[in-house]
Design a protein that fits this description.
Six copies of one chain form a homohexamer.
Chain A lengths: L10 H6 L6 E6 L13 H16 L3 E2 L22 H17 L4 E6 L5 H14 L3 E6 H9 L15 H10 L21 E3 L5 E4 L2 E6 L2 H4 L13 H21 L1
Parallel strand pairs in A: 1-2, 1-3, 3-4
Antiparallel strand pairs in A: 5-6, 6-7
Helix pairs in contact in A: 2-6, 2-8, 3-4, 5-8, 6-8
């Protein structure tokens, strides 16, 4: 049990830390459908793995991981466990409130699930206004999306839900949870002509302009895959994880 | 009082409508700082003006405008009135619940303030899962941002808070509320080296990759301006408004 | 856009005001059935019109109008949009909280809908106990009711929902939204013998003594009219509006 | 322990009742300042006494009394215990929900404290819309106020907080809790010229027209008395209680 | 009306007390099934009776009794009225908040219903952390259970819901509410082999080890009795009440 | 990643399960002071380890672990992270709601922290009344307490917070997180004469009878230890863990 795990320290050890200087990484995951071939814990696994990789090389602590996020629109898919956004927001509020009560002042949410982001936004804005704290959020898959362009071997150079990037990362981190026999290429498709859907969260386009179109997830995707997982490999996954990790180590050191 | 205003109809007239087919446009504004030279009601004025322009040319109704949104991070600036996000979410929930109770099934939020978007997201996802409804959201300034590239005269071809686009639109719609003598060029600036901030909402970059960095708005901008309003003109505003309106009329007709 | 509109001022202009002395008028409306011949926005239209007429002659500001109030018991009538009372209370709490945060200390709710009153009561009592503020509420239709006795031409010298006073006011303010062809005389009628009902809100009498009897609105009135709108005229409406306005100007000057 | 007390029945006895026909009287009290000479439990004592007197002569049941209501504006006076209005509303909601779950359909709130009324209103309207129930509320002091005109001996023929009527009723019901040596005449007085205040709840007048003016209770009354308790007698109290009781028995029999 | 009743004092008398030293006993009851032969108000009656007996011999005050608690799992039995635990918690929070606002610092909850205990726990912990107060809770039936071993005549020397102890106490306090003709012996029985159930609240055993097994109350008991009420007598009840009272007087004097 | 982890399955695999028969173990932990020599994650580590040991030998699934519980009274000790009990209750409600939505019907909470129990109670009672489900809770340390009597080598044959049992278990499971150099013997001590305190949660005794006495944790214990950890060994820990595991495997098989 490594000491970069917040939970691995005694209260006395926490007491003796330079709490005002310590950065706490807070992994946020989800339990939701991640395509027919990937485990429902993908976001949690990845947020934790990245946080650990970063903590190993820096002086950060990793706070307790929240494995259930806001994924209400995926409840049609068996296995999805979701909090309401109000509940997640309240959980984050009390989590940060406890830590600021102890004198911690620097927090970076390591967020594996974009559905959680608006709750993080709300709570972070509250605390920067009411306390002398510094807060950032990094969204793993957004970073993967940004960095993918510079990784030569990738076929999909943007992030797609359950596509090449996510599948590669899981083949690297937890290959035993990936069922490549079920993997297939599928893209979200709007049932409205002239509208293009970009994900099940709402982002869509009409005539090339970004609008938001709310649709039942099951109506947009059958398998839950919204990209091309077939070219995924563990080796690519390793490169992606390492690229993200290196990036975050540098970011953390400049925070 | 035009009949495209929902509120201008009697209950009997509502009763006699083809309620299942009618699209209701729901203008969402804000009351918040919009730069030192623009009125705090900008988002509300613009959402209403656009909704009316669209309604005039289509068969939509315009629901009651919500003039106060989620703008908590701007409370440092005098005049800002903000709901908590949970309150705004609940207001939207009860608004849509009332309308679905009466048999309406098609809603388009005409959102003038991006801070409101996550509340719209949450409520819309709830209703598409629990009711047979169609819901979309258009964010005025996001559309302006997308369409700006195609408007030749503009100096800023992306949307900046209180910059050329917003100022031009206000010079066109409500010139008496604009004080160009106070206008000046200012950009948000992070107080952390190596980090670039994109708005007061959190979007930021570290080494060209998008992350989120929460900062007090007053620490990022002095005037509330985050762009260049100096080249704004009423004429450009008219073009922008008309471009957005034409776009939305087409979108509404395809919804 | 007149500067007595709070929203028409920039944050800098708000900053430069004598905020502690400024009275803010807060128009509260509703979106609810107002009789078969009147638009569902009556209360909002009237609260706004009165607030503007008062602001023109005084030094008050008009805060953003809330067009949706607490009208749950009218949800049987198509078009009614209602907040729960807890939600409305919370909205008002955050509205006043934002304004007191900026140093405003004087508020007058200009309330067009009596269903909103208990929420105003609760929030006002909270703020006078926790802040150095002055708060009043004027209920437009209650004032109309009081003043009607002194207006010679009126047939109904008390206020009745959708009756002579309300209809006259709307014929004066927004004649295009009134459908006099549908107007007719109807009074609320209890389905319990020996009980007299006074409105759909509950007020009733048994043997001349005031009690409260809760009934479905649809069981008490078919058209939503609870008085005699047939003798209404725009001219009477003008007198009523002017009488209320004069009264309020004097009240505001003494506040 | 009389069987008209709901709580005095076993679950089996409740089960065997004609639950759909039974009227349940629900006494609502308060714990708040009631003038310097009267006990803080006045409203509870009176609501219970009246409910019992009515139940003895009719076939009603008396539900559990709620002795703490909404009295927030009296918290400046020692001894006042208050719920927030949202909490009281929720308590009433769950109370009625439990009873309707068991098949009860007729409820009369016997309300000793006008501060509770808006919570009763809200919950009653909800249940008449969602269930096949009949609900009424009687406000003890409002009834006293209506009936006082017909009681010859009274000096104050309207109800005043801690005045002749309330003091008389307490001298009759619980004389040991009344300290007439402290009793004195006091009336609420606005600290604003030209405004007349009618109670600490807000009702006020400007130029004879009813408006609402919120003020700290302690600024309006020193002793908590808002009338003339000096002419109160137990004998008058007996007449008042009997008059109210007779009235309510008749009302209940017609409900 | 004895002055040990908090509600029997005027605000002035409360003001003149040594509020910081005064212990306030807060009786908590319930309205729930208590076996087929006992009234649904048992817990309230007993908490009040004990609190009064203690107050008579000490210098304590008795705060308003809460007659409705958390009994949701008994809603299958007619007559049960229950708050949600969140509502009860909030009621207790506001109750104690009002009293600490007035300077009271010592509270003992006299709790007749174990379902209420977790709400008392939560609120008490909050207040000891945020205020300089002393708080204890005594659970009547737990004390009866502890003391029963030393009362020679009892057949059941532990407390059983609606068994000998509770029935005896009610035969002593309110014999007119007890229907011994319906009394019979019944014990809760799990419908799972190898599991033993101890009450309808959840406590159970598997192989002699304590676990919690949630079951519908109606599936565990038909009559609501979970012991042997047949040997109950008023005389035993008197001894039990006196034993508890003597114990609590001593405890209060040492608090 | 073993397939007994719920999160390790894809939505399709969850879909193909016999969901109605599957038992889901839900580990509940805490992040709170656990004595000066033990890590703040003890309850989470142990709940997870036990759940895994049980799942390996049975057909259960392990749902996502909740690592933050209700520990508000320990917030004085650095490192404690606590939810409010209402928040934890809501989290559990939405967790179980998601799973019952997918057709799961059997849940066993594997609870490492007694502070969480009342939230589990509330939610479990709700779901057994509204759904056809079976729910149990096992509290690890209560089971350890029951079974300790039969483990010959133990010096403390009851469970004490941070005492021999807990320390032994941690020496076995995560020795690197235990700092035996800081371990020492300490017992909770009431600062009231004649009262004996049993834990920081409230349980106490006066004259041998169980009552509840709320005290600040820091006033009762300096080190957070409430027993004797000095005789703890990894070997004893192994026996304890295996004894609990064997017991639970049998219990699960009989559920």
């Amino acid at each position: 049990m490594k000491r970069y795990q917040f939970a691995a320290n005694s209260w006395a050890e926490v007491h003796e830390m330079e709490r005002g200087d310590k950065i706490i990484l807070i992994p946020l995951g989800s339990t939701e459908q991640e395509g027919i071939h990937l485990p429902i814990g993908v976001d949690t696994y990845v947020a934790e793995a990245i946080a650990q990789a970063v903590a190993k090389e820096t002086d950060c602590l990793i706070g307790p991981t929240l494995p259930v996020g806001y994924s209400e629109w995926f409840l049609e898919f068996p296995g999805t466990i979701s909090l309401k956004i109000e509940t997640l927001t309240q959980v984050l509020r009390e989590y940060i409130s406890s830590l600021t009560h102890h004198g911690f002042k620097k927090f970076i949410f390591v967020n594996g699930h974009s559905g959680n982001s608006s709750a993080v936004d709300v709570v972070s804005r509250e605390f920067i206004m009411s306390h002398e704290v510094q807060i950032a959020m990094v969204e793993i898959w957004k970073i993967a999306n940004s960095l993918a362009k510079d990784i030569p071997k990738l076929k999909e150079n943007v992030f797609k839900h359950a596509g090449e990037l996510m599948t590669s990362v899981m083949l690297y981190l937890h290959p035993d949870t990936v069922d490549m026999k079920r993997a297939k290429v599928e893209y979200v498709k709007s049932n409205k002509p002239h509208f293009t859907v970009k994900s099940t969260l709402g982002p869509a386009e009409f005539k090339g302009v970004e609008i938001t179109l709310y649709d039942k997830a099951k109506g947009l995707t059958e398998s839950g895959i919204m990209g091309d997982p077939l070219s995924a490999t563990a080796e690519k996954g390793k490169i992606i994880v390492n690229t993200i990790t290196s990036y975050l180590i540098e970011m953390v050191n400049n925070f």
